[in-house]
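We give this protein:

***
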Amino acid sequence: VLFFLTSLFFSCRSVKSIEVETYNPARITFPPEVKTLMVVNNSAQQPDGIGHKYRLGNKGDSLMSVSADSTAYDFCLWLGKNMAESPIFDDVRLCEDTLRRDSVFYDKRPFSAGTVKKLCKSYGVDGLISLDNMYFITEVYDTGMKEWFAGSFIKVQLTGELRALWPTQKEVYAFPVSDSLKWYWSNQIHFPDYVEVEAKPDVKEAMRYLSGVVGEKMYINFVPYWSFDNRWYYTSISSEWKRGTAYADAGKWEEALTT
């Protein structure tokens, strides 16, 4: 009897979901006087022969030379574009000047308070978003076959660090950057953990693509953003539940709550 009653009770109820668009706050809040920002590249370019491995068939790994030129620019460009769409700032600019001239790519050299004031005054902005470090690790595997199971696989990992800076700043706001992608091309087999491309992937292309994608995603640290979330609610065969469900489906939340 208990099993029957329980089954009957749950058969009369169900769970539904509704997609809600949510306006989320940024990870940090800039002071009111910061109305114009500039995204700058403060990283040293990674040397071509460091961080890249290649394997052909069953042979051992060998070093590979790939240029990281333009990857930092792509990162900063897409970060600035997404930030510029927010009404929080009057203007978001991209600095195209080379601010870091040393070759110590693995070292982070954040701007000092004096340098931040100088740069803001020189470029006519109120604050900076600084890319202080960018480093790639790539792995390429080529089957070396032409007919049966010809294929090429690329793994690219990106790490780095961003900072938010302005002249009156009291605290340090640093944000780690980390993401990866896996591409493959094959004439025979599908690999679910990789993104399939139509032609043999290029390592430089993969690095630039990942830079843009990650830069585009990092904007949530600096400006409020919209996201889509699922909200769950219960339904029942009772008239009150039906009316409440209809109100909820129509987005009339006050009526749904009082039903």
User: Anything to note?
Assistant: The CA atoms of residues 52 and 138 lie 5 Å apart.
